């Protein structure tokens, strides 16, 4: 104070400096606060603009979803630049894989990548192409085209992508159909259902074994002359509307009877010996898959109606068991894959592969399955349409060059697996439609060269009343008697030869030629054999009854009967064995006990004739 009093200028300078420092502090503090508040406002504005521009919640949910396999880059989102008849040209889809499942947005229609080119990607649509427009976005899924497989598909009608068409609700892959007593129809190993790729490689040579087990169709002329084995590929070929589909339906119904017999005796009847001691019975169930390609919707509906009709084991024979058998529906042992004529060509192309994938579930589970492709000629037409739209060079009959591979890679998936792989089998019955019985057409010769035999249906025989109209001379099974029961092999050994000789002799009768006694005998016997092998639709026969009928004809028991009375004799014989089964010793009981046609069988058969005159 003394210093400041003596020197007042120093005091004033110090006070002014102190005031200026305080003012600077206040000013800089307010400026810093303004800057901080402005930064916060800028951050809020940026966040708000990002929320408007991008839906961050959807991206967060997409990243948290473990099932997605998408990498969020610009390379798996393409743009449709051209669209024509179910074939789309896409650009900017740089990481797509051949056969990958893609989705067209906003319609969400599925598709499949079919061709990878330098600048563009070509894909086919599995749906209505009118819902897709040029400029729509295309997203990769990261998954190959697949279909759900499992025992829960039994009794259902699905499309080639596995979606249900029968209005029975969603499909539970681990479920199964049940009867009136709530007992399951599935008899194989209980495995969980899963998603399986539609295109898979066929089993190799080491994974297979030779075809030995017979597949009983219930049609006498097939089981006796053109036997089919489990794991075989047998072609059904003929003109339209002469009974090709009916053969497949008869097979499904007969396998349903066999499966129901096994289910009743082994699982619920408490009498396994009735199956194990029967030398002419199949010991394992077989499940059926029917693939309708290019069929009318009314045809698929009619097949479903026929297979949904209730059947009963008593239709074939009265049986003795601890538990009374209940009625069953053959469709519960079958699966129907439908791709009708109104569907797009890509769906008709995909349907046989989807059906084969579904059937392979049973094969790989150690069970047996049979698949009917009805028909592959329509699949080839759909593939030709796709190939022409893809600008691939046409070949013979405008089919692409790889049309042979189209069917070979499909039919090679049918196999009898080795015991180390479970011993399951997949039997393929492709159907080919011919024009005016021309078996030398392109697709017909392709499939004939792939398969292990063919059943040729002739329109001339069909219109003569011979049904099923099987041409014995052109029909053949390259497995042969290896896929027959021993008793059938013994009885039917000369049947095909006698029928072939009869067909040759009948041609000369038309010209009025004089015939010797031996030729007249061939005509006499052959006419009765032809009548004996006639069979109504959707009524397959038990294998033991087939052997009885063949023994009637080849043993000369019908030589004294008129041709028009052969059918009535068959009905009386069938009724006789149906009512007396297991109640007394009959020819059928001897046949099923020994499994061969020997003297004891012939004696029992002669005694049956004496007891009840056929």
Oligomer: single chain
Spatial arrangement of strands, main beta sheet: 8-14-13-15-16-12-17-18
Q: Uncertain spans, ≥5 residues at pLDDT below 50?
A: 1-6, 66-74
The share of residues in extended strands comes to 15-25%
Range of helix content: 40-55%
Q: Tell me the number of strands.
A: 18
Span between N and C termini?
151 Å
Provide the residue-averaged pLDDT.
87
Based on Cα principal axes, name the global outline.
Answer: elongated
Radius of gyration: 36 Å
Main beta sheet strand tally, sense and closure: 8 strands, mixed
- Helix count, DSSP H or I runs of 4 or more residues: 19
Query: Which structural class is indicated by helix and strand composition?
Result: alpha/beta
Q: Which descriptors apply to this entry?
A:
eight-stranded mixed β-sheet; single chain; alpha/beta; 19 helices; 614 residues
Offer a quick outline of the entry.
This protein is elongated. The chain is built from 19 helices and 18 strands.
Can you walk me through this structure?
- This protein is an alpha/beta fold.
- It is built from 19 helices and 18 strands.
- The longest helix has 46 residues.
- The chain is elongated and about 150 Å long.
SSE layout:
Blueprint: H1 2-6, H2 8-53, H3 56-64, E1 77-84, E2 87-91, E3 100-105, E4 109-116, E5 120-125, E6 137-144, E7 146-149, E8 157-158, E9 194-197, E10 214-215, H4 220-225, E11 228-229, E12 235-238, H5 244-269, H6 273-276, E13 286-295, H7 297-307, E14 334-340, H8 345-364, E15 368-374, H9 376-389, H10 403-411, E16 425-433, H11 442-450, E17 453-457, H12 459-463, E18 476-477, H13 486-491, H14 495-509, H15 517-532, H16 543-554, H17 566-579, H18 587-594, H19 599-611
Parallel strand pairs: 8-14, 12-16, 12-17, 13-14, 13-15, 15-16
Antiparallel strand pairs: 1-2, 1-6, 2-5, 3-4, 3-6, 4-5, 7-9, 10-11, 17-18
Helix pairs in contact: 8-9, 10-11, 14-15, 15-16, 18-19
